[in-house]
């Protein structure tokens, strides 16, 4: 009987915590940082213009964000944007957003995208200009421009002002997890793990 009470308590707590996993509701129209007097400029962000112009200049993949960090007017609004620029062959490696779903719209070129659900099922799609794809919150996903000649650009909308990004290669191989643990987890040798760690810490 006591164990049932603990199970019920655990379910209630998990439900309560789950309902607060995204952005909290605010009790005013908007949030203004200390020392700021809001005007029309406060509600305007002009930092995405350059990113909408094709391939990134200095990398195979580049993300330009408009989150609450870059655009403080988004605090409390449960929304943000990003422009994803892909050079030919560019990849946004497997990653998750712990606080948000992502709605991706291809605005130039084409992308191969995929997500893995909690049953370990892979869903992939080829998106052309004008196509959209949703990545549910917390699920591992990726995007790649398989075009060998032309760049691709996409817009991503998020249901959080601070979606967060957990890059799997950097998290697994660049965070300092003991290499022996990684080797055993991936059922491989230490030399292979060492190469992956070296690659993750360089990039």
From TrEMBL:
Superkingdom assignment: Eukaryota
InterPro entries assigned: Cupin_1 (IPR006045), Germin (IPR001929), Germin_Mn-BS (IPR019780), RmlC-like_jellyroll (IPR014710), RmlC_Cupin_sf (IPR011051)
Keyword presence, Secreted: yes
SUPFAM superfamilies: RmlC-like cupins
Pfam families: Cupin_1
Keywords carried by this UniProt record: Apoplast, Disulfide bond, Glycoprotein, Manganese, Metal-binding, Secreted, Signal
Residues involved in Mn(2+) binding: 95, 97, 102, 141
SMART domains: Cupin_1
Binding, oxalate: 92, 97, 102
Signal peptide span: 1-21
Gene Ontology terms, MF aspect: manganese ion binding
Gene3D superfamilies the UniProt entry points to: Jelly Rolls (2.60.120.10)
The UniProt record lists the keyword Disulfide bond: yes
Subcellular location(s) per record: Secreted, Extracellular space, Apoplast
Domain annotation Cupin type-1: ranges: 50-194
One GO cellular component term noted in the UniProt record for this chain: apoplast
Similarity-based family: Belongs to the germin family.
Subunit structure: Oligomer (believed to be a pentamer but probably hexamer).
Function comment: May play a role in plant defense. Probably has no oxalate oxidase activity even if the active site is conserved.
Protein name: Germin-like protein
Organism: Cocos nucifera (Coconut palm)
